[in-house]
Design a protein that fits this description.
By secondary structure, the chain is an alpha/beta fold. A hairpin with a 2-residue loop joins strand 9 and strand 10. The longest helix has 18 residues.
Length: 301
């Protein structure tokens, strides 16, 4: 840009099925980052074997690139990946968020282990276009067809601008949220004391969660309840550790597709952690709006 403002988030994708194809995409991208004025060294976040390929190809230039095994970066849920990226940009990026990131998701691990996990990671890819829009960050998402199947690649292409099949992130989120949640099981029960932390903690410990994890889950439920107030009816709980579930019903809609994905202000001002905290703690936070309000379902693991 020519007016001094940061360039918008540049969200790219490359699809490869061989070592040579990976290098053909990754090396020019890293070279672009090395040549970008005012930027820190580019970062390669990839499978260890692909990092070894890059080291061999770069030779003496390896000192100018940061290498991160992707299992160290993508360590939990999609919301955890948002937090990881936001924290890294704050600590290491250049002015306006300027940095080049080569990013290979772990499709042979958590992200690809079930249709539900895949859905959440595609949501992350789509919402990244909104979350990082003000940043002058350039990201190249690398999809290996040897570990990510055709359906995953097709969905990922829709989340990246410039692919010819790109769909606005709000529309992707709406598509994902159009799938109804499964009905609570017959054994689901209301919490007599409501969704307060003590009641949730006691119930979760009774279902087998260790005390420290029950405390985290209870805090996530309490934060969510505060963010959704006023609630409509009692909280429902079900499941066995670690898959303890609490469902809350709000009298108002959530609407915002970024709810819980935007980090709260570092200075502690509003908004409260709320859904952000819940997304950091829980493996799944499912939100479904309807004409009467919203249903929010939290699952610890």
């Amino acid at each position: 840009m020519t007016d001094g403002r940061p360039a918008p988030f540049d969200h790219r994708i490359t699809v490869f099925g061989s070592d040579d194809a990976f290098l053909a995409a990754a090396l020019p991208f890293l070279g672009e980052g090395l040549a970008a004025p005012g930027e820190p060294p580019p970062v390669a976040i990839a499978a260890p074997r692909n990092l070894d390929l890059l080291r061999d190809a770069l030779g003496g230039d390896t000192k100018d690139v940061v290498f991160v095994p992707h299992t160290d970066w993508y360590t939990g849920s999609a919301a955890n990946a948002v937090a990881q990226a936001a924290g890294y940009l704050t600590a290491h990026a250049g002015p306006g968020g300027g940095i080049h990131l080569l990013m290979e998701p772990v499709w042979s691990g958590r992200a690809g282990r079930s249709a539900r996990e895949t859905t959440e990671w595609i949501r992350y890819e789509a919402l990244a276009n909104l979350l990082f829009a003000p940043m002058a960050t350039t990201a190249l998402c690398a999809y290996d067809t040897r570990t990510a199947g055709p359906a995953v690649v097709a969905a990922a292409l829709r989340a990246h601008p410039g692919t010819g099949v790109y769909l606005e992130p709000e529309l992707i989120a709406a598509e994902l949220d159009a799938v109804p949640l499964p009905l609570p099981p017959a054994g689901a029960r209301p919490l007599p004391a409501g969704p307060n932390a003590a009641a949730v903690r006691s119930w979760a410990e009774g279902r087998g969660l260790p005390a420290a994890e029950a405390e985290l889950f209870a805090a996530a439920v309490a934060e969510t309840a505060a963010a959704l107030a006023p609630l409509d009816g009692a909280a429902l709980v079900w499941g066995e550790a670690p898959a303890c579930v609490c469902e809350l019903r709000s009298a108002r809609r959530v609407d915002d597709p970024l709810a819980g994905f935007v980090p709260p202000p570092a200075d502690g001002t509003e908004p409260a952690p709320g859904l952000w905290y819940a997304r950091q703690v829980c493996a799944y936070v499912d939100i479904r709006d309807d004409s009467g309000g919203a249903t929010v379902r939290l699952q610890y693991a």
